[in-house]
Amino acid sequence: MIEEVEQARDCVDKLRKRLREARVHLSYLSGLSYCSDGERLAAAMALDALDRRLRRKRRAVRELMNDLETHDLSYDMVTRSVVHFIVGGRVDPFVDWDESEFRSRTRFNKDGLRDVLAEMKLLPGEIMGKDGSRCPIEQAVMIVLTRLGSINNWDRMQHLFNAHRSYLITIFTTTRDVLHDHYGITVTSFDFLRIIPQLPLWDEVMTSNGDTIPGVVAYIDGKAWRWCRPGPGAYFQNIAHALHLDVSQVQRAWYNGHYSHHGGKVQHVVFADAMVYTFLDSIRRHDAHVLRSSGVNVMLEQLFIDDPTNNMATVNTRPAYGYGDTAYPTDGHVIAYPSGPQRATLTNAACEAHTATNRHRIVVEDSFQIHVAMWPLANRFTVHSLAQNGQGSFPDLYKLWNVMVLFTNLRTCITGSQISGITGIDPPTVAGYLANTNNGVQQLTVL
Prior knowledge:
Number of strands: 14
Shape: globular
Number of helices: 21
Number of domains: 3
Structural class: alpha+beta
Helix content: 40-55%
Radius of gyration: 27 Å
Strand content: 5-15%
Largest sheet: 6 strands, mixed
């Protein structure tokens, strides 16, 4: 780190020299009668840019000096210099933060998060990073939640947790992967063992709330998730070379002209109990394509009402439906809100039923708003890159969104949400929501 400080100071000295030269050049141009206003403006803009760059470098030197004053460094002979000993010790949020700080930074209260961690029985007691960094699982989850929920700047994070930036990044990425490996299936595959027995109650309550279509127990919609524009780096160069394409063609695979940005298409399926299931594809994909490629239509076809055994031979068996907007096809167990020409062929009673059901479909819109409001990192597109360090990072983005949805559902289990007020169904408990995943029976075989 001492070498970094010296290098930063050398850069500051060079910038100071260039700034003095630019000022002399600008004063010289100002005294020339034949110098155009455009040349003077360009010189002034260059001077301003140098001045801003100098201020940034000075700020970087101050931050590096603060790191030297607050951290004791040792050297790992196998890899690189890492922080092992922190002056004052690392921060324990459960002890060092008061309740209001804890809630504003993690979106959970202390007792609620303790209950969540107690029910996440598959998580290890300690997280170990690739560089050998170790962190108790409680603090590792706190780092993830704080990064997602309130602080998107690693420099602020290291002062908040009294830990080095590289340590925090390693623990964050490792914990995100561990959470997704053990509990990602909770938000990417329907929990049939929990859902099917509750379908009759959901149908009865939701139908009694208005003249909705009988059997609708879930709502579907897709939204664009913005990412930064992929650069023509080594990862995309290799793909373009292998496919005999131009790099711009590979980049275009994640661009949608309708939205005018790069990104992914996120599809949410919100059930009556406010639990969200999520699926991710390229932003170029239509909602109907994501429905099929994710297997949501197949999973919905396994749901029947009045038949806990899911035996289609039962006389009273009725299909359970997912309801979507006009972008979805009405096929199988999916019902779509009819477009103008389609409504002309329906009876008045059918049109009124669709109108009432579509009003309830606001719950899936609420799920996106709740998600983004709870985890602001989701909207910070500049940190969402498709390629980093020469490797594709789509799996990392996929895990990131799923982990955010997982903790959104867990918080809903504790505090409820406005979705429950619309559907009239209470969310499950944390233990009930995670029970089948903890027991290894989350997903049934879908033929």
